[in-house]
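WARN no homologs supplied; continuing
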Amino acid sequence: MTRLADYFVLVGYDVDKSGSSDGQGRILQRFPEKDWEDNPFPQGIELFCQPSGWQLFTERQPPTFFVAVLTDINSERHYCACFTFWEAVEDSQPLKSLSGEDDEDSGIIQPAQMFAPKSLVLVSQLDHTEVFRNCLGLIYTVHVEGLKVPLETLIGNLLTCFIPIAGGSQRTITLGAGDRQVIQTPINDSLPVSGCSVALLFRQLGIINVLYLFCAALTEHKILFLSSSYQRLTDSCRALLSIMFPLKYCFTYIPILPGKLLEVLCTPTPFIIGVSSFFRSETQELLDVIIADLDGGTVTIPECIHISLLPEPLLHQTQTVLSMILDPELEVADHAFPPSTMEPSSLKIQDKEIRAVFLWLFAQLFQGHRWCLHIIRIHPEPVIRFHKAAFLGQRALTEDDFLMKVLDGMAFSGFVSERGPSYRAIDLFDELIATEVERIRLEEGNPHKVMKHVKELAEQLFKNENPYPAVAMHKVQRPTEGSHLRLHQTTFPHLDEVTVQLFIDHAAAKQKNEIPAVKSEKKCMVPSGPPPDAIIDSNVLANSARRLEVIRNCITYIFENKTVEAKKLLPAVLRALKGRAARQCLTQELNLHVQQNRAVLDDQQFDYIIRMLNCTLQDCSHMDEHGIAAALLPLVTAFCRKLGAGVTQFAYSCVQDHSVWTNMQFWEAMFYSDVQNHIRALYLEGNENGEHHQEHESVPEDKSALEIASEQRRQWPMLSKDKQQELIQKEESTVFSQAIHYANRMSYLLLPLDTSKNRLLRSSGLGDFESVSNSYVTNSIAGSMAESYDTESGFEDAESSDVANSVVRFINRFVDKVCTESGVTNEHLKALHLMIPDIVQMHIETLDAVHRESKRLPAIQKPKLLLPALLVGEELVMEGLRVYLISDGRDEATGGVMGGPPLLPAEGAIFLTTYRLIFRGTPTDPLVGEQVVIRSFPIASLTKEKKISVSVQMDQFIQEGLQLRSCTFQLMKIAFDEEVASDLAEVFKKHLHKLRYPQHVHGTFAFTVGQSFKLVVEHKHKEKNQSLKTLSKNLVKNAKRTMSRQHVTRKKYTPPTWENRSSLQSQVDEDDISEEVDQSSLTLSSTIKSSDRQTMSNVVERACCKDYQRLGLGTLSNSLTRSKHEPFRISTINRMYAVCRSYPGLLIVPQSIPDSTIQRISRCYRQNRFPVVCWRNSRTKAVLLRSAGLHGKGVVGFFKSPNAPTAGPSQTDSTSLEQEKYLQAIINSMPSYSDASGRNTLSGFTSAHMSSSDSSDKQRQPKIGALMKQVMGSKEEPPASVLGHRARVTSLSQHRTSVKARNLPRGKWGSIRGSGRMSSYSPDIGTRLAGKDTSSPQSNGGPSEAHFVQQQRAYLYIIGDKSQLKGTKQDPLQQWEVVPIEVFDVRHVKTSFKKLMKACIPSSTSTDPNMTYYRCLEESDWLCLIHKVLQVSVLVVGLLDSGSSVMVSLEDGWDISTQVVSLVQLLSDPYYRTMDGFRLLVEKEWLSFGHRFSHRGAQTLASQSSGFTPVFLQFLDCVHQIHLQFPMEFEFSQYYLKFLAYHYVSNRFRTFLLDSDYERIELGVMYEEKGERKSQQMYKSVWDYIDRLNKKTPIFFNYMFAPEDGEVLKPYSFISNLKVWDFYTNETLSEGPSYDWELVYGRQEQMDESDRQDTSAPKSKRKIILPCYDNRSKVEPDAITKLFQEMQSLEMELGQVSEKWKDTWDKIKATQRTESKLESRHSLSSSLLMSSNLSHHRRSQGMYVKESRVGSTLNLSMDSESSVTATPSSGMGRGQQSTSTLYSQFQTSESEHRSFEGILYKKGALLKPWKPRWFVLDKTKHQLRYYDARQDKDCKGVIDLAEVESVIQGTPTMGAPKNIDEKAFFDLKTTKRFYNFCAQDSQNAQLWMDSVQSCLSDA
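OK structure emitted
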């Protein structure tokens, strides 16, 4: 029982202090005047009576009532019910204050009467708002109405009224004024009483807003309510607290805050406060407060606040159910016939329904929480802790922000301490958790079932608040309406204190005599409910069973010492341990192998167990929510190994590096869990010993600790004092012993093995778990592991004492916390603090011994180093260094996207030889441990070396590594093994650098091969091949002598300036400088001496001369002269390399130009590279010339307009005349020019003359205009006046126009239009070429077919660099025209190549979407450069083919010019598409004409700075693109191109060394190839090597080679038509690059032999081919190569001398040609491959050639319906057909269906012989037709199958073909006659018979 009201207070306006700005209230009277002992009088009541401040009003206000809540220092809440009314103020006081002013200003009006507030206040500990309203209202009524009841009596009765707090009873009270009230107490006082407040709150703010406030309150945010009504504020605050049940709000709670105390809002702690909206403006600047405006219905959340909301799907479900309660009509709003009664419940019921929803919500949030309570003390008071991590882990809610915050909050701590004990009274929430959780889970998704449940709960809540709903016997008098407005009201009288005190004293005396009514609390054991459901992802469940099996097997293998099996399973186990189930399985399995707390292992077992433990711990979070680390804790102190006498190493020393060990919460949870187990055991044990005599009370084994605690608490009051004391002591000592145990455990896991290395203080000290590094690596040599910690530690020099101190501090903090919480005595705590440093010190000593011994352990056995195979003459420079080859950005080898086993990382060694860098090793993954991984590249191809630091998760830490990138598209990322000393790595790098950049070209492998390495380093070079050397020296001497006559000093040559050079050119980069250093201005040499004849004969043998003779450009007779009528001659002016050092000795120049002129002309060109003829079109006699770009001196004069400033002295004019003469001489050499009546200019040319030129030429005119437009990107069109008369066009030249229609182009046009941004050619173009294209171009990018205006063609086109030709103008009378094109710089090639390498061999996998392979490829611009080169080449081909000569005059004439000139010849002349021709082309254009191979390839130290620029590779790529488009035009295969691409940078051969013939002669390497070879295996020339190899194997041969005579190729060059060359992307890890043939294929032969010997066991023919590992073409060769191989092996078996493959091939082709008359082809592929008169798609559109390193595989897809038997139409009439028709479309020769066809011999009529005929079986027409030959269109005869009676085996008759099997004959009997047939063999005959038979049966 308790008092209804503790105090009654009368508060009035303080008239004395009214002068101040704010009025004040004061307490006029209070009863009782003395404080109650149990309940002191609350301070500051006067503030709360008028929260907005005490003010006077000019008129009376109606009385108000509200309840404020005050909280005292003990967190007890006091409810202050304030009833306020207004009274008139006595006049004297306020007027006095104004009277002083009256004298001065009598104009002020005297104020009207003022009214002051007066409050009647009841202070109570109970919250009975309505009762308080009635009581205070009654007192006021008695006063106002003047009833005859003394007020003292009412107040006395009120203060002496006692009522029960709870229990569901009802009490009737009266104050003695004829009134009566019934008070109902709630049944259970733990449930809050809310009236209608919750429903009102939802009505005011809405569902979402209230949910925000609810979550904010639970996650401890500040909440402020605003309203103009005080009672609303109180109700809202009460409502918010009600829905938080079962949690209790434990921060500041002030439902009504007086204005004077507004600074409370700035408190840093959370709060729930209500403030009158009168103070709204003051609340605006609060930045971290959530403001709920009850009147406006809004909730404002500041930006800086993030409210964690309920987890989904709970949030959504809660919203749904709430809306069903508050707005039941919503659900049926769309129904056509909504139910008539859908009213929401009454407010009171609605209020309870809403609260029921929140109860239901908490039951779901906290389900299973009792299973995570740790009881650590039972007596004298229960101490309980909650295991948060376990709860979140089991509920799979570790990531949930809301729940984490709630569990960390104060409210939840209070919840645990209040509801944790297992023996107490229980309420609705406990019952819900215990019994209804299963129901809640089942009904989760069904709102209607949830609603039903909510209504049931609401009913219980309502009943709790209103146990007797029917009773309503209130009778309370109220004042009459408007009574407060009466004019004359008496003031509230002064009450008699004595009278009231008598009432109180009397009641107190009576209370004393009464027996106190103690309501016995019904206690019981709190049920725990179902355990939390361990939620596992469904996808994990599916495959976890198999994984767990693998883990179990692996552990079994380890303990059974089956190391090999365990090693194979280990990677799978480590991967599986990412899953929670697997980690739990591991802990259980390992537990089974621990006997008596100890498991001694050998080194290997220990190592495996450690790796598993580390892997398991690595994936645990620092919270250890699944208890994995907790389960491993006993294991790490159990597994150990013997290191030596008396030294044992435990597993904990190797698993320390995990953040979980430095997390204080983890250790606390572990400690509490263990204490709980021990206390449980303590009581179970006690029971077993029979200390309790009642047997039925003995505790069963499976009781939980909470149940035992409940039982103990129940018995506690019945125990004797001694017994109680004994239990307390036992529990305390249990906790104490555990604390000692944990101090030991913690020192085990926190002290590092090598205590001199301070690991734990790595960043911000222990306990800050975020700071601990997260890389875990294990090692059986624990010592080495501990040593390597210093790389991560910030305190390398820290002494061991520091470590000890930090560990001691950490353990002390832990011990203090847990011992204080679990009630350990102070003496014990002190003892612990003394003990801890000793424990730590002792452990450090033990560790020192372990550390010492562990260092002595033998190293882990590492795989044996595999030595690489070396070439003859290749030597090892260094012993192999043990390294790991790390995977790079190409993920095929790691088993990435493609799947397959991870071949990388691999463990092995890196070898440095004189020629290559080789890695050879085995994958670290045991599943592919038998494979060998090889990656190698020539040292000369190294482009970048970069230091990297690698942390690979392998058996050890690895410090440093290297990343080496090669331009043969290999990337080696290696990490040095720990055994490789860092100085050794440095030596390796030095050697590598020395070999990569030798001082001189003599240091390259091609020269040093076969010598010992020392010589290489010291650069001694033995003279060999003396005679050739002297010859070379003579040449060089002569050249130098000639130069000295001119007094030339070797200095940098500076070309004359040219004002109009573009800014691009003026930036001389390192390329320009280095290219011009060697160049001296050379002068004409003396005439040839007889002593140099030998030299000349050698020169004649060079490639150039052979080719000039083939082209008919001239030969060298003995007198070195030529007949005068030939247009060209071979000039020997450069035989001493005096005119141009980078040109060959013999050059083709016009017959009419004397040598002296050449000497002068050459000075106008850069590097003296003047125009020379390099090829002539045999048909049009147009010539192709090459030169460098112009210097601007001399030559510019004749291009420039007269008023342009001339450069240089007066000599310019004469030189430009000679220049002009030179060009004219070239034009004169052309037949088409001399045909034009010998005229020297083009002015007389007319379209009539043009059309009279030979018809074949007219047919062949390609549409160059459109093409030129594309090459140069011209957007200009000539003006309209272009037709009819001369037009001046703003361009480089002026033209005559001629209208001409062009038809049939010769050759097939590819596309060369630039695509979008890729084409950067300038719009400047001679319109003579451009023409006016009136129709759209063809879809393939060639010119359109329609007629277009073609202006007059020039006789000579000069392709020049646009930037060189600025400001030049064309003379209308000249017959040449300059085509300015924009060429890319070599710098562009260099950067583009770097980017290409990064795209094709990335160093690491990138997740950046902007770094994908295709994006990087596009950014490299490589294909764009290829496109430009091809585009220009196709343009030149077109010009030459149309009869114009072309001079390519770009840059220095040795890069892009060489590319273009070579490609033009390759496209125009089929000879260069053969192997010999291609060799000749490269020797002539690239080697003789001085492409700077050494400089561009950065082959020596001097050229190192210029970097690698792959101009030649770019050319090979272009050839590869053409090869792809015209696979039948090339004699060599794609492999041939790759071979050259590899070896031109490898420096294995001397062919591609040095920069010009001059340098080669100077070094004496030019002619020595003919000299003696040192060994059969060492080749100095790549060509000899290719020849030898080609004789041996068809690897370089293209089986599809079937050329057209005189075919001109015009490939497409759109970027969409270009393919990335697989040379850049393919890799073969099984053998390394396959271009050093002896290494790969020589070894292969030995392996094959060893395979052959082992024929005992049957072997599967199936092979697993791994991408990037196997050499595909070798493992699965194409059909023809396979046949060759089979033939070879058969010949070997039969002991025959095997025939050369080429002879075999030629024979087969010859046979094929003879047979082709009958075209007996059953195999389509052979017909395609062998016959050279094909007219199938020659461009590979219907044909896909699979590139391979051994021959080619053919894969055909035809566009005809019957692709099985269709073969191309006859090539007999090929002469008339142009190639474009051959390439265009393919038609079958017959349109009808052919079911079966082939050759049969048919016996003629009587006396007629047997004849072969082509028979066709046609199922559709149901007939058998025959023809004379395959191609015949006319049918010779038809046998109707309807007439056939039978098909039977026949016998040979007279005249039948000889040597044919008897079974090859068959007969066909028809109704009319008998046919005899003979097939090629019996099989074929059977086929025919079956086919005919099936036709018959089908019919």
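The first helix runs from residue 45 to 49.
OK
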